[in-house]
Structure formats: structure tokens, C-alpha cells
Amino acid sequence: MSAHTQTAEKGQNTTLLCQESYVCSGTDEAIFECDECRSLQCQRCEEELHQPERLRNHERTRIRPGHVPYCDSCKGANGNIMHASMTGSRQMAAVRCQVCKINLCVECQKRTHAGGNRRKHPVTIYHAGKAQEQEEEEGMDEETKRRKMTEKVVSFLLVDETEEIQVRNEEDFIKKLDCSPDQHLKVVSIFGNTGDGKSHTLNHTFFYGREVFKTSPAQESCTVGVWAAYDPVRKVVVIDTEGLLGATVNLSQRTRLLLKVLAISDLVIYRTRADRLHNDLFKFLGDASEAYLKHFTKELKATTARCGLDVPLSTLGPGVIIFHETVYTKLLGSDHPSEVPEKLIQDRFRKLSCFPEAFSSIHYKGTRTYNPPTDFSGLRRAVEQQLENNTTRSPRQPGVIYKALKALSDRFSGEIPDDQMAHSSFFPDEYFTCSSVCLSCGCGCKKSMNHAKEGVPHESKSRCRYSHQYDNRVYTCKACYERGMEVSVVPKTSASTDSPWLGLAKYAWSGYVIECPNCGVVYRSRQYWFGNQDPVNTVVRTEIEHVWPGTDGFLKDNNNAAQRLLDGMNFMAQSVSELSLGPTKAVTSWLTDQIAPAYWKPNSQILSCNKCNTPFKDNDTKHHCRACGEGFCDGCSSKTRPVPERGWGPAPVRVCDNCYENRGMQLDVAELPSDEEGGTLIARKVGEAVQNTLGAVVTAMDIPLGLVKDAARPAYWVPDHEILHCHNCRKEFSIKLSKHHCRACGQGFCDECSHDRRSVPSRGWDHPVRVCFNCNKKPGDL
């Protein structure tokens, strides 16, 4: 074909020429096609050929633009060529040979022009125009047209087995469906046990037996997750699901996924090949109905309002068709012709105490297969009848379908703990409610999954009990409660109107305070010399609240007087240190030069390391080699050895790398230290001893300071020894990276992640103090 295509691209004439050559010699354009003459004819040849009386009644068709003739080789002179006899039909031409002047179909071209010199004959490729296609479609019956519409349909993975949606967005969903964004659709899904032929049923019901959804004779399930395809004939989204009772690791998540699919469906087919209807079918539909009404109706209504959808998503649940195929047993209701199968199904639901109230309708469609294949015509008619009914479920745009599925997936997702499962139900509440458990009483949260993303707090209908470990008491102002308001109060070091230092002084004298935003200071723990009463008996009410994982404590010790004092002392020490850093460096450098030996290079002249040439910064320490007297960095002068020729011995002292390597060489006598230099050397040794002693004292003071910090730490702060890295950026703490506590949450952060300042009244910090990035983003008072 490549050679033919190549010659066709060289500009061969695509005009149909007369094939009779009776008058025109085959050079005129063809105007007619005569079926009985089996040739294309120009105007002149057509008139001359049909002048005889016996040829005047030939069926002739005027050629229209885009006309494709029949193959000349297939029909032959009498229409009995081998290819025509095998196919039993006349084939449309695919090419026209410009040398042989004949039209050929694909098979005849391969047979007559595949080898020899004919292979090089130039050909013209026929392209059927729209008019020709319309003509072909007009000749098709309705069933053939439907089959042709489904020839290009393919399925795609919509949701995987872990409940993750596999389409990126609404546009990607519409693109994979291959439908118009404005097309109004309904959704049909199928459920049933694994191996019952759900995919096979969809292929024969909607796609005329084409394997749109994969089927397999293997033992393993061929459908994992949720697959979707678009039926252009009935304008529906067809969804295939993973079978029940199949081998899977995520059984709970798969079952929850089935209900999400059911919630967005307009029609559900429950496929069963059991000879008798099992109780599992009725239990599944009954539990699905209860879970739909309890969890999904509210969420679908919220999605309608949140997305501004014009079409309601939860008027009623989907309709259900129970497709029952038997081999050896009779169909439901065949023994009682007077009773409809739907009545028998409702009685079965009632006996099992299952009430499928969520479904808009339940229909039964059975078929008995004496000899394969299965007859799906009855199911197809039942499905089409239900899809035409728009009284309860109206069609909607594909974008609405995607938004509904996305909203349900975002709301009901996450792992389901096995120890919380109630296996007596197909769809227990644990599949759709929050998995958090109160640390004090052990009761579970009754809110829906992922409610924390919307800022909704945990909630439980049962009352909690007090636990000393969590101290889950909450104080409320008694005076405000009697006026109809519930205002929470906490014990703290000082009142909000006191300055930090005045508050510390009052705390030392009068103890902690309880302050109400409306009533002011209502209690001081040491207000009187004796006879101070407990606040619970006088000014506050106590309530016991649940302790949810990840939440802060309640009445933990908010007395932060000791930490305030340490913060103040640290601030003063840091300020003095920073202000005196420059002068201290200058004085230290001058003093060191005054007591240095004469052969040492002065500090003011040492700008970089004598070996590696690294420039010294303000905070860098300069080290003198005791042998040569030059200045080095710590890395280039870390070795030690005695230098008796300079008066340093017998103890080893710091030398540079060069002098350490040349330690076998002796200095000249002229370089030995004089008496004056010996005195200076003694002064230097004394200075180093004093410096080392002071350094040891400072290091020793750091140890009790850490103990003081732990003692002063508020109760809700995470202890220093448990903080290994920054709670936000995860940097590991070291000597150079200091730990800082957020005054709101008590976690440990580096300075970059906790440099914001805000007051934290709930923790007793009424003046701006250090808080982390996360707490600083929270609205309202901390």
C-alpha cells in the first residue's frame, strides 16, 4: 500500500472517468453508473449504449460528489468471480488503477496487483465523502446503526481499589467518556458476587457483545476497582464494579466504594446466577439503603448547594433491577402466576427485617438458560424502560456526575481500623464516620469522615468521665452562666491588664488568678492570709469534656511565672551579650597581643589562615602556632607536641601542620627565647590557664541551667529531651540550632519557624509571646 499511496500523492486525477470507451475512448468524465452494465458511463456513451429497446430499462444512477464505485474485478462479466462468490456481496472499490483503467477493492488489489509489473502501476485512492456515508447509513436498519455507534467505545479505570479517583478533573472525565459536556446522561451500575458475569452482562446488554469491559476465565477477578464507559445509543454512563465475596486486602474500603458508586447511579443492576435468591442479596440492598439515607443523602444535598448545581442529587435513591439467571430451577413467581415477583421480593425483605426505603423502585427480571448463550433481551428492555422514566431521577451533565463522585470520595475516605468493624452489616457506620476515639472514656466520634477539613470539631453523644491523666475539666464562669452565657476561663499567672513584671510580683504575693473576659478577675488563689476557698465552690462551674487525639489539654498548669522569669533573664543576657560582643572582641585581641611572645604575629595583622588562606570573620578564633608564631585556623593547627626550643615543654602545645611534620629539626640558638621573652611566655601561660578555667566554669553553669529550664517548663510544653528536630521544618537540633517552644501548642521549633509574636490568653500569656507559624495562622484568640 505504501507504493500505491506514494503514487496517489503525486497528484493523480481523482475524477471518475467513463469505463465503457464506447464513444469517448475513456477520456470523458463519468456521469452515470449502470448496475446492469456494471460500469461508469459518460453522457455520450450512456445515450448510445441504451438506445436499443432491450437496454432502455437498465437501472442507472447519477453519480454524486464523493461517489465510490463497485470493484470491477469482484463482479466480473457475469458477477461470478471467485471473490464475489465467497463474500456473496459486491465490494466497494478502494483504488482505481490508472494503467488498467479498473476499480479494485482491497482484496482484489492484493490478488491482481501485488507482484510483477502491475505492482508499479499508479493508483488513485477513493475516499468516501459525507454524502456517500449518509447514503450508506440510510441503507442500514436501526439495529446496525446502533452497533456502529458502539464500535469505538472503550472503558477506563474510574476509581482504583484504594478509593483513589483516576481521572484528574472534570474535563479529563468528559474526555475519557468521549461525550459532549452539555449532554444529559444517566448512570447505570452493576453489582453482584465475583464470577457471576457482571462485565459479560454489561457487554451484551449495552454494547452488543463487544468486550468493552474485560472478561476472563481465570480464577482471579478481572475487574479491580471501578471501570466506566459511555453508551452513545442510550446516553448513559455504564459502570462496572468489583465483585463481592472476592479475595481482596482492602475489604472494608472496597465495600464502601460500592456504596459511593450506588449513590451516584440512577439504575442499579444486581446480577446473580444462584438458582435460588440468597439472603446476602437482600441484606446487601437493605444495608445499602440504610447507609445511603444515613450518610449519603445529607452529603449529596450539601454538594448540590456547595457546587451550585441546578440538578438535585438526592431526590431519591436509584432504581434496582434484580437480574436472576437460573439453569435448573424455575424463576421467581412462576409457581404463583397470580403474584408478581416484586411482591414476593418485598415479602422477603420484610421477613429479614431489611427495608430498602432509599431505592425509588425494585424490579425483578429473570431468565432461565437451558442452553447457552444467556438471553439478555429481557434485561435490555427492562433497562431501557427504566431509563425512559424521569419522574424520580432526571439525567444530568457529566460534570455533575464527576462532582458528586469527587465530593463523596473526599468526604468518605481513609483507612478503616479492623478493631472497630461491625461485621454483622454490609455497610456499618464505621465505614462513614470519624475513626477518632476519646482517650479518656473510649467512646467514638459520631461525626462523618474528614470533618476536621471543614473546621467541624469532634462530637460524641455520650458523656465523658474525668481522667487525672488528661485533666479533662473545663472551667466556666458561674456569673456569666447564670446570665445565659457560657464563657470558659483558665487559671493563669497574672491578669491581662498587668504588665509582665508587675504580674510576676502580684503572683509572688497573691498567687494565680482566674480572669473572665466579661467579669474581670474573679479569683486569686492567695487573696487572703488564710481561708481562701476553692474556685469550684465559689466562682466557676466544672464540666468534663472528651479528650480527642491530637487536641490540646484542658486545665493543665498554665502558671508560667518561672518561665516568664527565665524569658526575662534570657532576654537581658542576650541583649548585654549582643551589645558587648564588638568591644569584647577588640579588648580581648589587644590584651592577647600584650602578653604574647615576641615571635608571635600580632592579631591585628592576621587576616587569614597562614596555610589555607581562609579569611577570618568577626566570630572566628585565631590560633598561634607555638613553634613558628604564625596565625592559623583551628583545622590547620589542631595537632600538639612539646616545643622546648621555644620554652613550651614538656607538656604538648598547639602547633601548625608544617611545624608538626618538621618536629625533628632543631631551631637555631639565636632563635631561643631571651630572658625578657621568657617572662612574656610565663604571662601567656598564666593567661591561657585563666581562660581555660573560666571556660570550664561557664560550661559547668550550663548544666544546672538546663535543669532550671525543665523545672520552669509549663505542663503543656513538650520536654526538651523529647524534642529532637523542629516540629515544622524537621531540622535536627544541635549546638548551633537552638530549641524554642511555641507558647500556644507547646511543641519545639527552630527560630525561623517560631519568630511570630501573639498573645495566648488560653495559656495565660496575655502579652505577645513566641508562637509557631501554624498557631499564628489560626483565627481568633489563641
What features would you describe in this structure?
It is a single chain. The chain is α+β, with helices and mostly antiparallel strands. The protein folds into 5 domains: 87 residues, Irregular (30s Ribosomal Protein S14, Chain N), CATH 4.10.830; 266 residues, P-loop containing nucleotide triphosphate hydrolases (Rossmann fold); 70 residues, no CATH class; 95 residues, Zinc/RING finger domain, C3HC4 (zinc finger) (Herpes Virus-1); 64 residues, Zinc/RING finger domain, C3HC4 (zinc finger) (Herpes Virus-1, 2-Layer Sandwich), CATH 3.30.40. Helices cover 31% and strands 16% of the residues. A 7-stranded mixed beta sheet has the order 7-9-10-8-11-12-13, sandwiched between helices. Strands 2-1-3 form a 3-stranded antiparallel beta sheet. A 3-stranded antiparallel beta sheet has the order 5-4-6. The N terminus is likely disordered. GO terms for molecular function: 1-phosphatidylinositol binding; phosphatidylinositol-3,4,5-trisphosphate binding; phosphatidylinositol-3,4-bisphosphate binding; phosphatidylinositol-3-phosphate binding; zinc ion binding. Interacts with RAB18 (in GTP-bound form). Interacts with BSCL2 in a RAB18-dependent manner. Interacts with ZW10. Pfam families: ANCHR-like_BBOX, FYVE.
Could you give a quick summary of the protein structure above?
The protein is of the alpha+beta class and 782 residues long.
Mean pLDDT: 75
CATH class (first level) name of the largest domain? Alpha Beta
Separation of the first and last Cα atoms: 78 Å
CATH T-level fold name of the largest domain: Rossmann fold
What summary fits the major beta sheet?
A: 7 strands, mixed
Uncertain runs are 1-13, 76-88, 419-427, 571-581, 666-680, 693-703
| CATH architectural type of the largest domain | 3-Layer(aba) Sandwich
Subcellular location: Endoplasmic reticulum; Golgi apparatus, Golgi stack; Lipid droplet; Mitochondrion
GO cellular component, one term: lipid droplet
Subunit structure: Interacts with RAB18 (in GTP-bound form). Interacts with BSCL2 in a RAB18-dependent manner. Interacts with ZW10.
Keywords: Endoplasmic reticulum, Golgi apparatus, Lipid droplet, Metal-binding, Mitochondrion, Repeat, Zinc, Zinc-finger
